[in-house]
Structure formats: structure tokens, C-alpha cells
Amino acid sequence: MPVAVYVLGLSVFALGTSEFMLSGLLPPIAEDMGVTIPQAGLLISAFAIGMVIGAPLLAVATLRLPRRTTLLALISLFGLGQVAGALAPSYELLFASRIVSALACAGFWAVGAAVAIAMVERNQRARAMAVMIGGLSIANVLGVPAGAFLGEQFGWRSAFWSVGAASAVALVGILALIPRIPLPAERPTLSRELRIYRDPQVWLAVGITALAAGGVFCAFSYLSPLLTEVAGLDSGRVPWILGLFGVGALVGTTVGGRVADGHLFGVMLWGIFASTVFLAALALLASVAVAAVALSFLLGFSAFFTAPALNARMFNVAGAAPTLAGATTTAAFNLGNTGGPWLGGAVIDAGRGFAATAWAGGAMTLVALALTALALRRHSPGPRTRVITTNLPAPQTPAGLTSPERN
Question: 80's torsion region: left (phi>0), alpha (psi -120 to 50) or beta?
Fold first, then answer.
């Protein structure tokens, strides 16, 4: 495996840490910026909105650009977004910096996947993609709790500075180790790929993905204040519990990716059902510290156990349009990451308390479960094909887009 692929994995580690680290930083950001915690939670939605917009847009816009140069430009823009966030004197500027960072993140995923595929032999492509996705998993295990720890010890701005520094290291690695990649000989036809949106199963897949992801992140986005103010835990323990969520995510991704190949709908149904049960349990047992900690791990497991199957389902129903299939999956996940925190914030603003975000999230996953059952009922299996359990297009595709928050 070329060292350059691991450089891409390091880059994804920085991207993923930035995307999710705010879950452990909401209270200090809210206090420093003079906003409510639900308003601070909208910063998570801002990043997700940028991903929703940037994923399909940049997946198409960067197809003819030099790969290495594009990666350098995008990781630089991402790093500058982190610096702008660290220096932001107001909530509005911090909000804007999150959107800019998200656009760069979406574009980097689009180009980085194609570059990783181009640098390895055909029989190593899945392994190369696993390195990139592994960067996201490690971000959940180490980066997110490390961000919360830095925020606790040195202020929330230190977490942004740290991600900016990781971006600078990734920039040097890309500049030194990633070779120039020839542009693809044939560009996908956009008009042909847009036809996938005529298929109701594509929209069912979008709805299921958005609701399943949004339900979990409706509660996860406010897990830090729930643990301290409802469960009564010391704020110093929050980074470790967020890390436990990341461990559950890493285990869930591994197990779900193996099982989804032969039991796609089974993984979707049982995984989303498990998330619904765990969210209801969190709402009922939020004041019990041991239960809240255990459920943090279980929610990470169930959410990421389902993610490979959700990605595979989109590629199954939109296989004729691999470029937009990957972008649509990314957009769907981040649509959920936008709606979930927004709904959780609305519940808190209504005076329902932090534990009620789990009830709201459970309602979202319950609807996702119903849509999954509907998709299964309308499913018409054709000739048996191997399910793609990563969120990547077929290997011969010149450009694809993965989904970080969700594998």
C-alpha cells in the first residue's frame, strides 16, 4: 500500500475530527459566544449543510481538474477554515467558517477517493478505501474525545487550532508523497446520471439514510450536556465517553460491513430498530450515569453497523450513476446530520430538556424503519450481484465520493 494512501487517511482524520468534535464543545462555545446550547448545536448543522451542498456539486465540478492540485487546494481551504474558526470573534463568523470547511471537506472526499483508487492495483482498491474510511473511524475514537479534552483544558479554540495543524501536516504529505494522477480518459455523462432521480427507490434510500443518521445525531449532538446536566457526570469524563461512542462506531462499521454483503435489508432493519430502542432507553435512563455511558457505546455501534448497508443500498439502486450515487449518499447522511441537531435544538428550546432529544431522535429512526420496510416490500431482486459494502463506486469509475460521518 503506497504511503500516499495513508496520507489521505491522515487527511480524513482531520476532516472527520472537525466534523464531529463540536459534540463535545457545545457548552464552552455557547458560553464564549453568548448563545444558547441549541444555537451552538446549529454549528454542527452548518457543517452538514455545507456537505449536502458540496458533495454533489464538487463531485461533478472537479472531474476535469488535476487531482493533486485539487487536493492541495481543498486541504488548504479546509485548514484555513479551521484557523478562521479558531479566530472567529463572533458566532456568525464561526458559523460561516464551518460552511467553508464543509465545502472543502466534501470536495476532498470526492477527489481523494479517485486518487486512492488510481494509486493502487485493482485488487488493492478496497483496502485503499478502507485506509481512508479508517481515518474517519479513528477520528471518532481519538479525534473527537481529544477535541473535547483540549476544549476542557485549554478552551474550545485550541481544538480548532489542533485540527488546523493536522491539516497542515496533511498538506505537506500530499505535496511530498502524492504523485500527479492522470485525468480520466472518459468523463461520466451528467445528464445520464441525473436520471437516477426518477427512481422512487433512490428517494426511499435518501429518506432512510437521512432519518437513520439524523435520529442518532439528534441525541449525539447534545450528548455532552446530557451527560453533565442530566446524568450528573463530571465534564472531565465527557471526552472518554465520546471516545466510547467512537469505539462502538468502529466495531459497528467492521461488523456491519461484513454482514451487509449477504444480508443487506436485515442489517438495515435490525440496525435501525436497535438505534430506535437505544434512543428510547437513553431518554428513559438519561439520569442513570451507568446506563447513559453504556448507551453511548451502543448507539455508536448501531448507527455505524447500519452505515455500510445504507451506502450499499444506494449503489444498488443507482448503480448506473456511480458519481452521483456516492454524492447522493453523502448528501443524505449530512441531510440527517443537519435535521437531527436542528430538531434536538428545537426540543430543548421548547423546554423539554436534553433527554427529550433522544425521544425526538427515536421518532426519526422509527420513520426510517417504516421506510425500510416499504423499500423491502417494493424491492425487485434481479440477478444476484455482490453488494458493495463501502460507499464507493465500482473500481473502474474515475471519480467517486465517500461519506465520512457515516462509515
Answer: alpha
CA dist 244 and 25 (Å) reads 16
pLDDT in tens, 173-217: 888 888 776 655 556 566 666 777 888 888 999 999 999 989 998
> Whose CA is closest to 399, among 122, 115, 121?
115
- Distance from first CA to last CA of the chain, Å, rounded? 21
DSSP 70-137: HHHHHHHHHHHHHHHHHH--SHHHHHHHHHHHHHHHHHHHHHHHHHHHHTS-GGGHHHHHHHHHHHHH
C-alpha torsion angle, residues 251, 300, 389, 58 (rounded to 10): -130
**Nearest 10 degrees: CA dihedral of 339, 344, 346, 352?**
160
For 211, residues 6+ apart whose C-beta sits below 8 A from its C-beta are: 336, 364, 365, 367, 368, 371
pTM of the full predicted structure? 0.71
